[in-house]
Amino acid sequence: MRWIILAGLAVSPLPALAADMPMLTLQNHQWSPAVLALPAGARVKIQIRNLDDSADEFESTDIGREKLVPAGGTVTLLLGPLAPGQYQFFGDFHQDTARGIIVVK
Question: Which helix (H) or strand (E) segment is 66 a member of?
Fold first, then answer.
């Protein structure tokens, strides 16, 4: 009986892969996409990839989150649940060019 239970665990579905996560990319001190759509009322993991040769920090005072993203690095950030609306974010070290909006519907 134990083998049946263990075998069932071995074929259980895997969690969502990183490729399924929304991704923000920082390149030339600009976010892409500049507008990121997320679902309301859900906790969402997003990947943040920095293609620049200097570190920057994802920051959103609207959401109350910040996360350092090393040069050439990728980090994961957990957001939400968020209410419907628009939330601004920026690259803290390049606020003049690294700006974006999260739209929650």
Answer: strand 65-69
Structure tokens at 42: 């859900």
Q: What is the pLDDT of residues 66-75, one digit of tens each?
A: 999 999 999 9
For 6, phi then psi, to 5°, come to -65, -40
Fold of 16-104: Immunoglobulin-like (2.60.40)
Separation of alpha carbons 46 and 94, rounded Å: 21
Q: What is the dihedral of CA 50, 55, 61, 66, to 10 degrees?
A: 80
Q: Which of 42, 80, 46 is nearest to 63 (CA)?
A: 80
Helix (H, G, I), strand (E, B) or coil at 63: coil
